[in-house]
Amino acid sequence: MDAILLQILNGLDKGSAYALIALGLTLIFGTLGVVNFAHGALFMIGAFCAVTVSRILTVSRTIIDDTQKDFLGNPLKVEVPYVHDWFGQATGDVIIDWAVPLSIFFAIPVMICVGVIMERGLIKHFYHRPHADQILVTFGLAIVLQEIIKFYYGANPIPTPAPSAFTGSFDFGAMFGFEPNTIIYPYWRLVYFAFAAVIIGAVFAFLQFTTFGMVVRAGMADRETVGLLGINIDKRFTIMFGLAAAVAGLAGVMYTPINSPNYHMGMDFLVLSFVVVVVGGMGSLPGAVLAGFLLGILESFASMRQVIEIIPGINQVIIYLVAIIILLTRPRGLMGRKGVMEE
Questions:
Q1: pTM of the shown model
Q2: What percent of the chain has pLDDT over 70?
Q3: Nearest to residue 325, comparing CAs of 289, 286, 294?
Q4: Residue 338 pLDDT class (50, 70, 90 cuts)
Q5: Degrees, nearest 5: CA angle 119-157-151
Q6: Sign of CA dihedral 116, 343, 328, 310
Q7: What confidence tens digit (pLDDT) does each residue in 248-278 have?
Q8: Which of 150, 175, 186, 293 could be a cystine partner for 263, CB 3.0 to 4.6 Å?
C-alpha cells in the first residue's frame, strides 16, 4: 500500500505538468484550430523567466569588508546584492530565497506578450492552411526559440532552488498510519500539484462563469455565427492565445526547482503533451486535464522496479502504448468532440 500511495503521488506530480501544458495546447487548438508545436517552447520560456528573475535579484556590487580577513590578514572583497541595499539584508535574503514564486509576477505579462506576438506575427497567417503546414512552421519556431535560449543562457542546466521553507519532505506515512519515514515526499512537488489545481480551476472558472469566457466557448463551437453577431471573436481568440501561453509559462516557472531549466526541456515535454491532448480528445479541455493526470499516474506505476524487471523499458513507452490503444478503440480520444480533426 505504501508503494501504491507513493506512485500515485509521483503520478499526480508528473500529471500536473502534463495537464497544464496540454490545457494551454488545447485552448489554442480549440479556439484557433492551430496545431501549435511551439507550445513546449512556451513552457521553456516560462522556466527561464524564473532563471532571469533569480539572476536579477542576485546582481551585486563588490565592497571591502574590514570585518573579514583572508589568511594574510587583508580585508576581504564581498559581493553584496543590490536588494540588500534597497530592502535591508533580512528582507533581501527573503526576496532572493523566494525568487521562483516571485517570478510568477514577471512571467505572466512576459508570456502574454510572447503569446500575442507569436499569434499576431506568425500563426494568424496559417489559420486556413493545412495542419501539416502549421506543424512545420510552429516546430521551426520552437527550434528558433530553443536556440535563442541556448545562446543567451548556455547549454547546461541551471539549478533554480525552491524557497528554503519548501526544501524538506512531508511524511505521508505518518499521516496515513504507516511507520514514520515510510512515505516521504518533497514539499515543493506538493506545492506544484496544488498550484496546478488552482491554475486549472481558474481557467475553467474563467471560461465557465465570465462573459468573455462564454463568448470564447461559443466561438469554439461556432465561430462564424458568433462573428455574425458583431463580436470581434478574432481579438478574443488572440487574448486566449496569450492566456494559453501564460498557462504554459507558469507551469514552467514552478517546475524549475523540480527539473533544472535547460534549453531542450520544451521539446522533452512537447511530444508527451501532444499525446496527452490526443488521448484526452482534440479540442476537449476536460479531456486534456483528465488524460494528463491518468497518463502521469500510469507512467509512475510503470517506473516501479517490480514492473521494469518483468517488462524492461515499459516506463519509456507506456504512454504511447496507451495512446495507441485509446485511438484504436476511441479514435476521438476519451472526451473528443465529433468533427474535430476528422476532415
A1: 0.87
A2: 93
A3: 294
A4: low
A5: 55
A6: negative
A7: 999 999 999 998 999 888 888 878 888 888 8
A8: 150
What angle is formed at CA 336 by the lines to CA 273 and CA 220, rounded to 5 degrees? 90
The pairing of beta strand 75-81 with beta strand 60-69: antiparallel
Burial code (b: 16+ CB inside 10 Å, e: under 16) for 231-240 equals eebeebbbbb
Query: Collapsing DSSP states into helix, strand and coil, what is residue 278?
Result: helix
Report which of 239, 213, 21, 243 is spatially closest to residue 111, judged by C-alpha positions.
243
* Rounded-to-integer distance, Cα 282 and Cα 276, Å: 9
Torsion of CA 9, 10, 14, 19, to 10 degrees: -20
- Domains of the chain are 2-329 (1.10.3470)
Q: How confident is the model at residue 1 (pLDDT cuts 50, 70, 90)?
A: low
Query: How distant is the alpha carbon of residue 118 from its chain centre?
Result: 18
Helix axis angle for 265-280 and 39-57, nearest 10°, is 140
